[in-house]
Amino acid sequence: QTSLTPEQLGEAKNYLKEGLELDLSTYKGTPISVELPAAVELRVIQTEPGFKGDTATGGSKLAKLETGINVQVPLFIDTGEIIKVDTRTGEYLGKAG
Q1: Cα 49 vs. chain centroid, distance in angstroms?
Q2: Which PANTHER family did the record assign (predicted)?
């Protein structure tokens, strides 16, 4: 197990949660980079409620995820749902599972 600082993690810290496996590159025993999976599943902890018919409008709203980042999601996504997020772009990919 290796400890990393927020500076070493960079943007990866926005997608980390318990149990997530990462690839760690080192140079002479010192961590130099962290590689995330292409997508992670994160829980929505806060967002505005959706309204009937929102699936047809194609709009989006801001959702706060369990790691603290904010992501634009479709209007039909509710608090408590688990979504897939692209770790390279930070974009919503779809509902998990």
Answers
A1: 20
A2: ELONGATION FACTOR P (PTHR30053), ELONGATION FACTOR P (EF-P) FAMILY PROTEIN (PTHR30053:SF12)
What is the CB neighbour count within 10 angstroms for residue 85? 24
Cα–Cα distance measured from residue 84 to residue 39, given in angstroms and rounded to the nearest whole number: 6
- Position with higher pLDDT, 29 vs 50: 29
Write out the DSSP string of 79-96.
Answer: TT-EEEEETTT--EEEE-
Q: If we measure between CA atoms, which residue out of 28, 75, 17 comes closest to residue 49? A: 75
The model carries a pTM of 0.83
What residue has token string 């018919």?
A: 53
Q: Give the whole-angstrom CA distance, residue 78 versus residue 44.
A: 7
**Amino acid identity at 30:** T
Domains and CATH numbers, the chain: 6-35 (no CATH), 39-95 (2.40.50.140)
